[in-house]
Amino acid sequence: MDEKNVRIIKNLYWQQKAKIRVGNLNSEFDVEDKEHSGRPNCIDDWIASKDEAFFGRGIHMLPEKWKKVVASGSGHYFE
To answer: What's the CA gap between 10 and 15, in Å, rounded?
Structure first.
């Protein structure tokens, strides 16, 4: 990930804490200040409405999607 994308992510999720668990996989990052995060409550509501299997399926589909991005030669992939 390049510096520009890292900066964008840091700006969107400024001082936040979140923990995501799918099966035995854990991911944790800071998400403290939702008011200044740029992430509206509707996104939190959408995430909360999904079950663990939804995120598990998405994570397990990533390698195939990444292969398609690489195969495209342009770094873009749309379905």
So the answer is: 8
Q: What is the pLDDT of residues 8-30, one digit of tens each?
A: 666 666 555 566 666 666 665 44
DSSP secondary structure code for residue 78 in this structure? -
What is the identity of the amino acid at 76?
Answer: H
78 located within any domain = no
pTM, whole model, 2 decimals?
0.40
Strands 16-22 and 25-31: antiparallel
Six token digits for residue 41:
């409550």
- Work out the angle at residue 58's Cα, subtended by the Cα atoms of residues 34 and 41, and round it to the nearest 5 degrees: 20
Q: For the chain, what is the domain count? A: 1
Q: What are phi and psi of 33, to 5 degrees?
A: -115, 80
* Structure confidence at residue 8 (pLDDT): 67
Element (H, E) at 12: helix 3-12
